[in-house]
Amino acid sequence: MQNNILIVEDDMAIREMMAFSLRREGFDTFKAASGHEALEQLNQVHPDLIVVDWGLPDMSGIDLIDMIRRDDVIKEVPIIMLTARAEENDKVKGLERGADDYLTKPASMLELMARIRAHLRRSKGFELNHKLEFQGIVMDAGAHEVMIDGEALNLSLTEFKLLKLFLQNPNKLLAREHILNHIWGRNTFVEDRTVDVHILRLRKALKAHRKDKWIQTVRGVGYKLAS
């Protein structure tokens, strides 16, 4: 599967050069010339990595990173800041405010590609090696497997995503809106009832192993995984 890279850069020549270089290396690219355009893109796609310029026309790249890091759906996406600001204080500020890496212009495309690949390896590697467990339910996200007391559990992709969200947030109330945003995306028109239907399906799959009781309904609000 190809990785999606969002490029947020107001200089068209730099933006197009980066997009061309990334596509040539096998990446899918999405482009934005401003912070608000980037936010619109993020309503449509979930990138695997974002490259952000500091000096955007409508907001600073730092402010955009702040917004991304506060969003539960995309806050873990790796971000590389690519900017002409080369002062040490600027680099420290960028990293402290949420950038994972900081490159100054003019940057070598070879170095940018190397850093992109390094961050993608780390982010994917964490997911592949990370197992989630709760009350005998064990999920291996990388292998896309769920085991319950040693027996395999067959789930649809949506049910798998739902269970993963619960396992990542044990004993935490998840509002229907949060679940909708995380599973279907923030700009998708899906009714709250859709969440309820998929929760019922997930419970049915878990019931065969007597684990359905762990998914509890909080009336009028949402659901939580709790013992």
Automatic annotation (TrEMBL):
It comes from the Bacteria. PROSITE patterns: OMPR_PHOB (PS51755), RESPONSE_REGULATORY (PS50110). InterPro entries: CheY-like_superfamily, OmpR/PhoB-type_DNA-bd, Sig_transdc_resp-reg_C-effctor, Sig_transdc_resp-reg_receiver, WalR-like, WH-like_DNA-bd_sf. Keywords: DNA-binding, Phosphoprotein, Two-component regulatory system. Pfam families: Response_reg, Trans_reg_C. Residues 129-227 form the OmpR/PhoB-type domain. The keyword Phosphoprotein applies. Residues 129-227 bind DNA. Residues 4-120 form the Response regulatory domain. The modification 4-aspartylphosphate is found at D53. This is Response regulator. The lineage of its organism: Bacteria, Pseudomonadati, Pseudomonadota, Gammaproteobacteria, Lysobacterales.
